[in-house]
Amino acid sequence: MSVHLVLIDALNLIRRIHAVEQRHYGQTGTLSDSTIAQIIHNTSTACAKAMEKIVSYHKATHALAVFDSENPCWRYETFPDYKKGRAKMPEYLAKSLNDIQEVFMQKHVDSLISEQDEADDLIATLAVKVALRGQQVTIISTDKIFLSLLSKHIRVYDYFTRRFLDEAHVESKFSVQPQQLIDYWSLTGDNTNKIPGVSGIGGKTAADLINQYGSLKAILKADDLKSSVREKINTHQEQLMMTRKLLCLQTDIPLGFNLKDIRLPLNDGQSMQSTG
After folding, report:
1. 263: β partners
2. How many CB atoms lie within 10 A of CB 194?
3. 58-68, pLDDT tens digit by residue?
4. Is 3 annotated as a binding-site member?
5. Does the annotation place 198 within a ligand binding site?
6. What is the helix (H) or strand (E) element at residue 15, kind and residue range?
7. Are 66 and 123 contacting, i.e. CB atoms less than 8 angstroms apart?
8. Angle 34-40-45 (CA atoms, 0-180°, nearest 5)?
């Protein structure tokens, strides 16, 4: 049987849908209990519709909604300022996640939540494992880190813009190849997650270096770097290695289940197509 595994970055999907629903009620002031209840209802309903559309459009044979652990992952221990300053999920939404997971389950999509692993690493582990078997994987997320996994068997789809984020997208946005993105971001840093790069090296310089030398490893070994670039890299070399470690997705997490556990009911995807 041909497999098409669809992996949903669950909090990425839920929080973006919630943000749209919340905007209908304004962003200022304390929300009343009735307004909160309505926002949660609307978010849950929109999440259900999104899941139907995702499964149907991608003709998934297997699907899984992957959540972050409730406990801080290893990246916070390595770098305490990881994701520092990012807006926290509203408490009322956090308390509603179990109900939304049940909504997903009603659409035959189970949820995966680890006690200690970040969703990014869980998704990467699953995607690589299935891709190595020559089967198709589609990751549903707007998180750019998954672009580093792009390959013959792994695709990334932005549900909100309704487009695949492919190699052409990576080339246009970053001027490097998908497999070079981790090295690229190691130099520039990742502002979204508050991970620092090499001070003084921006996107253009990083892309030029990657394209000239091929990899961060080759850059570090090069003996013909401009003195100004060499000085910046030498000054921040310890930080550079930490940044790369933080950016690398883990692909070897023990999962404790197999594909048959998340297989969608036969013909379910076809029946969903009529819902749009």
Report:
1. 62
2. 14
3. 999 999 999 99
4. no
5. yes
6. helix 10-23
7. yes
8. 125
Report the distance separating Cα 246 and Cα 225, nearest Å.
25
Tell me: is residue 120 an annotated ligand-binding position: yes
For residue 28, what are the domain limits? 4-169+270-274
Does 147 belong to an annotated binding site? Answer: no
Q: Name the pLDDT band for 85 (thresholds 50, 70, 90).
A: confident
Calpha distance 75→81 (Å, rounded): 9
Tell me if 158 sits within 8 A of 165, measured CB to CB.
yes
Mean pLDDT of 231-258: 94
Label residue 65 left, alpha or beta by phi (over 0 means left) and psi (-120 to 50 means alpha): beta
Ligand-binding site membership of 128 (annotated): no
pLDDT (average), residues 15-43: 88
Q: How many domains does the chain have?
A: 2
My answer on whether 100 and 190 are in the same domain is no
266: its two tokens: 């036969």
Region of 257 please: left (phi>0), alpha (psi -120 to 50) or beta: beta
Compute the average pLDDT of residues 7-19: 97
Same domain as 97, residue 134: yes
